[in-house]
Each structure stands twice: as C-alpha cells, then as structure tokens.
Amino acid sequence: xxxxxxxxxxxxxEEKNVAPLANEIAxxxxxxxxxxxxxxxxxSTDATPDMLVNxxxxxxxxxxxxxxxxxxxxxxxxxxxxxxxxxxxxxLDGDGQNDPxxxxxxxAILRADENGIGLVSGIRIQRRDSLSRRLxxxxxxxxxxxxxxxxxSDTGCGLKAFRREAFxxxxxxxxxxxxxxxxxxxxxxxxxxxxxxxxERRYGASKYTNVGRMLVSVNDLLGVRWLxxxxxxxxxxxxx
Length: 240
Hints:
The protein has 240 residues and is an alpha/beta fold. It has a single domain (2-229), classed as Spore Coat Polysaccharide Biosynthesis Protein SpsA, Chain A, CATH 3.90.550.10. It is built from 8 helices and 7 strands; from the N terminus they run βαβαβαβαβαβααβα. Helix 5 (131-148) packs parallel to helix 8.
C-alpha cells in the first residue's frame, strides 16, 4: 500500500451534514502529503449522494462510494477500507458530532509507534448526547468492558485511526465496528486511547434507538466473547 491516509466516513441520509463535514476534514488533513476522503453512502433515500457528487468538483481528494441498499455502518466502513489507496485509515461518523480537528492528534499517536500500535481510539469528553443515551452507553460500556477486558470506556466513538492491514485481519460481522478495540487486541495489536471533542448534531436524527442498540449488542457481545476464547494468538510462520 502507498504511504498516506484515507479518511473513511459512513453516511446515510445526512444531506445537510456532508458538505460542512467534508470541508472540515479537508482542512484537518491539509498538511498531509498524500490523503483521500472516502464517503460511503449506505443507501440514502435523501439527497446525500447528489450532495457528495457535487462536492467532488471542489474537493479533488473526495471519493464517493454508494451501496445499492442499506447494509449498516460496519459494512460501510469495510467498503471504505477495502477501497482505500493508503495504508493508514481514519474513520469518523457522518453526523458531524466527531470533530475532524482531532484527526492529527490520533495520527501522531499511531505514527509514534509504527510496530506495536494497530489502533488509536477516541474517547469523547463532554458528550453532547441526551441524558438517556449517555446513561445507556455508560451501562453498556461497563458491561462490555467487564466481559471483554479490553480497557475501553467509549466504544461508540466513531473517531479512530488504524492500520489498514490490521483492520483487514479482523473477523467481520454486522455491528463489528463497536468491537474493533477488543478484536484488535485479540489479534495481538496494541491499542491506545485519546480524549477527543464531541459536538451536538446540527441536522437530522440518530439512526439508532437505545432499545434497539441494547438488543443487538447482547448477541454481539456474546459472539465476540466466543471469538476471544477460540483464538490462540499470533505466531511467527516462516518457510523452511
């Protein structure tokens, strides 16, 4: 893979958010010698795809990939990572709540240890979500951390930086983006955490409900725990 960064942004029905977000990302990575921005539209039913295509005229580093139907955030991230031209990946949510200005901070940590770190994950401070959503998230993170022992306090933060090769070694399943930390550790990669900004959603509404998120998470949590128990770790393999 070429040396550079690919910023992957999964979106669905975010027609009012994509333009300001894309411009902020472009400003945040302006000093990178080689970079691209990949928006993966996950079957939007509004004007999101049209907005993104129009943006390409002003942002030459922007690429737009569209799913023919809605497949979920994890599949969108996978699509973007597979399409990426560069070896370092940055992901962030498409609703504008993650701050692109934090991208250089994550990249600096990832690049400080090129051999050991596979992932740098953001931890949102002063979250701008509703009280009920914060409480559900706190409870879910506590249960998950106790079972998976991944040391993570905020798996829902979409702002992450990781090595493309490391991500592609992870077992894929729907909703796996919420377990990237545990899966990276399972594969033997180092994980670091950094505090990042969190902003209020400007337009639109969240695609997730508290109840729906909890019901899905139970099965996924048990599945990831099973994956942890059924893996013996990495080892050197060489041809004789």
